[in-house]
Write a structure and sequence with these properties.
With about 280 residues, this protein is an alpha+beta fold. It has 2 domains: about 1-55, no CATH class; about 65-275, Fumarylacetoacetase-like, C-terminal domain (Fumarylacetoacetate hydrolase, domain 2). About 20% of the residues lie in helices and about 35% in strands. It is built from 8 helices and 18 strands. The chain has helices at about 25-30, 35-40, 50-55, 75-85, 90-100, 160-165, 170, 220-230, and strands spanning about 1-5, 10-15, 15-20, 45-50, 65-70, 105-110, 115, 120, 130, 135-140, 145-155, 155, 180-185, 195-205, 205-215, 240, 260-265, 270-275. The strands form 3 sheets. Strands 1, 2, 3, 4, 5, 6, 7, 10, 11, 13 and 16 form an 11-stranded mixed beta sheet that branches. A 5-stranded mixed beta sheet has the order 8-18-17-14-15, with no helix packed on it. Strands 9-12 form a two-stranded antiparallel sheet.
Length: about 280
């Protein structure tokens, strides 16, 4: 089942049909330990609608939740971070993080900083090297249960982070530095770990960069990431957790204003954003 947040509330896509949701607040849905069961029980009371009714009304599928992220969870990401840090006199700490039991976890965004489908993500004015980071993203309940999945774009200023790892918050956390969508795939835990993640960046009508990976390349178990995140921490409204990226554009590439970013994870859909 796919759950969409729209300008009219929420909508559900289930078994080839689309329904207009009603009677349940968005944050109530996201804080459930079993939102799929709740919506299945409410489905008979919902009106079926045309899918075109939601296409132009999508919002970021987030309410009062925080967005957190994990880093250095793919081998390619580890290499990229080490390359970034060369100018800082090293980078082997990323290698140590990749092999360590404890993952890298960091705060990414509040809801007000998150962009939805077809929205405009930002690059920092003081950055010279900016990239999108396509990431499989978990919806986690207040009790620490993974209840759904969406697509995340962890916009990053690679030159700022590479200058000094202590600058990571500035490289990662700023207005419109995160995008989520187009929906939340509510799942009972059977998500296919072989699923492909595709990134395509268009510029002036041409493909400037494209690449893909699979979730099988994700080293960290998502449940372990959640367990570490919830240690000595509470999330009364639940949270979103970006699980890291395995796609890194070459050092010669940096985003430009009006670039079109498309991130596709087939079971979920495609998240489209423009840089601006």
């Amino acid at each position: 089942m796919k759950l969409y947040r729209t300008n009219k509330g929420f909508a559900i896509e289930h078994e080839g049909a689309v329904y207009q949701g009603s009677g349940i607040e968005w944050d109530t849905l996201l804080t459930q330990e079993n939102p799929l069961d709740l919506l299945l029980s409410a489905l008979p009371r919902m009106d079926q609608i045309d899918a075109e009714n939601i296409a132009g009304n999508l919002r970021a599928p987030i309410g009062c939740q925080e967005v957190w992220a994990a880093g250095v969870t793919y081998f390619r990401s580890r290499d990229a971070r080490m390359e970034e840090a060369k100018s800082a006199g090293g980078g082997d700490f990323y290698d140590r993080v990749y092999d360590a039991e404890r993952p890298e976890l960091f705060f990414k965004a509040t809801a007000s900083r998150v962009v939805g489908p077809n929205g405009r993500v930002a690059i920092r004015d003081d950055a010279k090297w900016s990239v999108p980071e396509p990431e499989w993203t978990l919806l986690v309940s207040p009790g620490g249960k993974i209840t759904g999945y969406t697509i995340g774009n962890d916009m990053s200023s690679r030159d700022i982070e590479g200058e000094n790892p202590l600058y990571l918050p500035q490289a990662k956390v700023y207005h419109r530095s995160c995008a989520l969508g187009p929906c939340i795939l509510l799942d009972d835990g059977t998500f296919d770990k072989r699923a492909e993640i595709r990134l395509e960046i268009g510029r002036d009508g041409k493909i400037e960069f494209s690449d893909s990976t699979t979730l099988a390349s994700l080293k960290r178990d998502p449940k372990v990431l959640v367990e570490f995140l919830y240690r000595n921490n509470t999330f009364p409204q639940g949270c979103f957790l970006l699980t890291g990226t395995g796609i890194v554009p070459p050092d010669s590439f940096t985003l430009e204003v009006n670039d079109r970013i498309e991130i596709t994870i087939p079971p979920i859909g495609t998240l489209v954003n423009t840089v601006g």
